[in-house]
Amino acid sequence: MAKVVVVTSGKGGVGKTTSSAAFATGLAQRGKKTVVIDFDVGLRNLDLIMGVERRVVFDIVNVIQGEAKLNQALIRDKRVDTLAILPASQTRDKDALTKDGVAGIIEELSKDYDYILCDSPAGIEKGALLALYFADEAIVVTNPEVSSVRDSDRILGVLQSKSKRAEEKKDAVKEHLLVTRYDPARVERGEMLKLEDIREILAIPLLGVVPESESVLRASNTGTPVILDAESVAGQAYADSVARFLGEERPHRFLDPEKKGLFKRLFGGRAA
Amino acid sequence: MGWLDIFRARKPEGGSTATAAKERLQIVLAHERVSRTREDFLPKLQQELVAVVARYVSIDPGKVAVNLDRGGDMSTLAIEIELPGPKVAVAR
């Protein structure tokens, strides 16, 4: 039986798709059969971040409407063989996603996969609600920024009231906090919310902290999930987070500003 | 950033990740702009192709793989239909 994990945030632009791509790839790298579903109908982007945009034939709406079989719509990743992507539709409107349709897809995927990752659209409308409805666990992606923290709190409320687990009064959806775009130097200067402040306000278990890193843009430029850039701090932070998600103990890294020597200060050192 | 970055900016453009980003966007957007004005024909194309093949051979509609590779100058559409092997009579 597969575990359904939603990657959500409420706010847009905080790194849901980057995190979904990294997490799905990381789980698959560790041998878990993983499928990642883009729920952002009309504004799909997971295909670009995963670098499979040229291979999209059918999408989730085609499957729901019976125009294609599920296994025809799944795109097998060429880098990690236990990974598949189910793209969102780019042309249909959001009403094409139905609860019954998504339920059918998740049920069918559950037979073949260990993890089903649902990449939520921003907001708390239909697509976002359907992305989280079937979740067993939730990764709440939050930036150290007031509007993001507020929206994360809002989405936690939605998880606790509108998910299937909430409706059926089962065990609550297991919540994980993933802080992204964290800049320790700005935190030290008092310009950015501290990790401890975010944890105190949201009060859910911390899964990981991904530092602001130039490698994230490079990764999206080329359509390579950033976790495959094992040299980069962001890639390493995601790999740590995946390990923790699977129950491993790993200390949090990259929480303090990089100490720059005179040489680096003069000649420029960038976050890899 | 240090003063050496002045020289970094002169690095040749080719092969940079930004160039890759631009090329990928040009290809994907060219295809999406066309599909905005025209209905997605792939589901119907597939159904009709399978129907034609099924007139001659009995096939499993679940064993049809449609693969697409969108390119700048040219795209390839590969439709793979698994044909069942000849049934061998089993001696009783």
From TrEMBL, chain A:
<dbReference type="InterPro" id="IPR027417">
    <property type="entry name" value="P-loop_NTPase"/>
</dbReference>
<dbReference type="Pfam" id="PF01656">
    <property type="entry name" value="CbiA"/>
</dbReference>
<keyword id="KW-0717">Septation</keyword>
<comment type="subunit">
    <text>Interacts with MinC and FtsZ.</text>
</comment>
<dbReference type="InterPro" id="IPR010223">
    <property type="entry name" value="MinD"/>
</dbReference>
<dbReference type="InterPro" id="IPR002586">
    <property type="entry name" value="CobQ/CobB/MinD/ParA_Nub-bd_dom"/>
</dbReference>
<keyword id="KW-0067">ATP-binding</keyword>
<dbReference type="InterPro" id="IPR025501">
    <property type="entry name" value="MinD_FleN"/>
</dbReference>
<comment type="function">
    <text>ATPase required for the correct placement of the division site. Cell division inhibitors MinC and MinD act in concert to form an inhibitor capable of blocking formation of the polar Z ring septums. Rapidly oscillates between the poles of the cell to destabilize FtsZ filaments that have formed before they mature into polar Z rings.</text>
</comment>
<protein>
    <recommendedName>
        <fullName>Septum site-determining protein MinD</fullName>
    </recommendedName>
</protein>
<comment type="similarity">
    <text>Belongs to the ParA family. MinD subfamily.</text>
</comment>
<keyword id="KW-0547">Nucleotide-binding</keyword>
<feature type="domain" description="CobQ/CobB/MinD/ParA nucleotide binding">
    <location>
        <begin position="5"/>
        <end position="226"/>
    </location>
</feature>
<keyword id="KW-0132">Cell division</keyword>
<dbReference type="InterPro" id="IPR050625">
    <property type="entry name" value="ParA/MinD_ATPase"/>
</dbReference>
<keyword id="KW-0131">Cell cycle</keyword>
Automatic annotation (TrEMBL), chain B:
<dbReference type="GO" id="GO:0051301">
    <property type="term" value="P:cell division"/>
</dbReference>
<keyword id="KW-0131">Cell cycle</keyword>
<dbReference type="InterPro" id="IPR005527">
    <property type="entry name" value="MinE"/>
</dbReference>
<comment type="function">
    <text>Prevents the cell division inhibition by proteins MinC and MinD at internal division sites while permitting inhibition at polar sites. This ensures cell division at the proper site by restricting the formation of a division septum at the midpoint of the long axis of the cell.</text>
</comment>
<dbReference type="Pfam" id="PF03776">
    <property type="entry name" value="MinE"/>
</dbReference>
<comment type="similarity">
    <text>Belongs to the MinE family.</text>
</comment>
<keyword id="KW-0132">Cell division</keyword>
<protein>
    <recommendedName>
        <fullName>Cell division topological specificity factor</fullName>
    </recommendedName>
</protein>
<dbReference type="InterPro" id="IPR036707">
    <property type="entry name" value="MinE_sf"/>
</dbReference>
